[in-house]
Design goal:
Order of helices and strands: EEEEEEEEEEE
Number of strands: 11
Structural class: mainly beta
Helix content: under 10%
Strand content: over 45%
Number of helices: 0
């Protein structure tokens, strides 16, 4: 499985971006997918997750209420709508998927850069 993120860019605070993660084949049937980010000089952390039912979701406190995760099974695509972006949202964003029995993520995209600056 190959994952390809897109949609990153440079925006001002308060603006929105929508990230996409296209999978090379259907992968939503058993394990959920996640969005991670790595801010400059910091570690990778999970910011959002969506379950296989497409309704169970998790958001890190820092993005709750501003970011929305969704998926389109027909297009094998995962999305992250990011609203009211803040300076601290600047990071490389990655999507992740799993083919393991334990649903540990073993597929990662190459990342898409989001830069929020005034």
């Amino acid at each position: 499985v190959q994952l390809m993120e897109s949609g990153g860019g440079s925006v001002q605070p308060g603006k929105s971006l929508k990230l996409s993660c296209a999978a090379s084949k259907p992968i939503f049937d058993r394990c959920g997918m996640g969005w991670y980010r790595r801010p400059p000089g910091k570690e990778l952390d999970l910011i959002s997750y969506i379950g296989t039912d497409g309704r169970s979701t998790y958001y890190a406190d820092s993005v709750k209420g501003r970011f929305t995760i969704s998926q389109d099974n027909a297009k094998n695509t995962l999305y992250l709508q990011m609203n009211s972006l803040k300076l601290e949202n600047t990071a490389m964003y990655y999507c992740a998927a799993s083919s393991t029995k334990s649903c540990i993520y073993n597929y990662w995209g190459q990342g898409t850069q989001v830069t929020v600056s005034s």
